[in-house]
UniProtKB/TrEMBL annotation:
The chain crosses the membrane at residues 33-55, 99-124, 136-156, 162-179, 218-241, 261-287. Keywords: Cell membrane, Membrane, Transmembrane, Transmembrane helix, Transport. Belongs to the binding-protein-dependent transport system permease family. This is ABC transporter permease. The lineage of its organism: Bacteria, Bacillati, Actinomycetota, Actinomycetes, Streptosporangiales. InterPro entries: BP-dependent_transpt_permease, MetI-like, MetI-like_sf, OppC_N. It comes from Planobispora rosea. It comes from the Bacteria. Its main location: membrane. It is a multi-pass membrane protein.
Length: 300
């Protein structure tokens, strides 16, 4: 087999990947769960991006009078009512979506970058490099994710940066193990063996063929991880490990602030709680649907 023939064999999975993508898109369009997840995700992202223009009031300024025993509920002027400091709850939920999206996306990108680097090293080199990387990954995965994130955030100090770094570190081993497994599976493929047998450079095989054909599961996992990142960010904020800036409303901290008023104003906990559930549910439904659409085991 000549070098050109080996390169042709190596390109076959990429061409097949194009048809796989079209077939996956066809299945997604016919999947009501995927449509529901996409609608929730689009709604969440749109509200987060348009929050400065949709919010009727500043998120950190009191706009009404409240007392510890009398907190106004929903009304025509304040759709979700007022919080314990007289701030508009609807405005703060909208801005909370914006900050949740920022924290989720930044922590996801950082976690994917770290996991990509470790997974690439383990999958491309194998041998002792793979063993060292995987033992480090196993050590991190042996600790419950949220507990590990709490420890990192507490060590770094409260703030948005600490929350994003903590969530990112927890997600690194997930992406590293997934990419490493996909690359090891691709290394045993016929097109890789053919290219290796005719002398194609290892770097070209890894970056030109193995890595591109290993990224699809990582992207799908990113969608699912974004859902957990939003929940983890809310959990860390609920524990007081996030920013204390009143101009940065976060759903988790909103839940924590309403604990004293659950008997007199329970809706103050309902609205941010529902927002967390809906945002996480949207990304979870979409991610699971993407996994089913791209996984050959689910083809009919």
């Amino acid at each position: 087999m000549s070098l050109s023939q080996a390169e042709t064999v190596a390109v076959v999975p990429e061409e097949t990947g194009g048809s796989l993508g079209r077939e996956a898109w066809r299945r997604l369009r016919r999947n009501p769960v995927a449509i529901a997840g996409a609608i929730l995700v689009v709604l969440f992202v749109a509200l987060a991006l348009l929050a400065p223009w949709l919010a009727p009031y500043p998120p950190d300024k009191p706009v009404g009078q409240v007392t510890p025993t009398s907190i106004p509920g929903p009304s025509a002027e304040h759709w979700f009512g007022l919080d314990d400091l007289g701030r508009d709850e609807f405005t703060r939920v909208l801005w909370g979506a914006r900050w949740s999206l920022i924290i989720g996306v930044v922590s996801l990108l950082l976690g994917m970058a770290g996991g990509f680097l470790l997974g690439l090293l383990a999958g491309a080199f194998g041998g002792w490099v793979d063993s060292v990387v995987m033992r480090l990954v196993d050590m991190v995965l042996s600790v419950p994710g949220l507990l590990f994130a709490i420890g990192i955030a507490a060590m770094l100090g409260s703030g948005l940066d600490a929350v994003m770094i903590a969530i990112a570190v927890v997600n690194v081993p997930i992406f590293a193990r997934l990419l490493r497994g996909q690359m090891l599976a691709q290394r045993r493929s016929d097109y890789v063996l053919a290219a290796t047998s005719v002398g194609v450079r290892r770097r070209r095989i890894v970056f030109g063929h193995i890595l591109p054909n290993s990224l699809t599961p990582v992207i799908v996992q990113g969608t699912l991880t974004l859902a957990t990142a939003i929940v983890d960010a809310a959990g860390l904020a609920f524990l007081g490990l996030s920013s204390n800036d009143p101009s940065i409303p976060e759903w988790g901290r909103m839940l924590a602030d309403t604990q004293r008023y659950l008997s007199s104003a329970p809706l103050l906990a309902v609205f941010p709680g529902l927002a967390i559930v809906i945002a996480a549910l949207g990304f979870t439904l979409l991610g699971e649907s993407l996994r089913e659409a791209l996984d050959p085991k689910y083809r009919r």
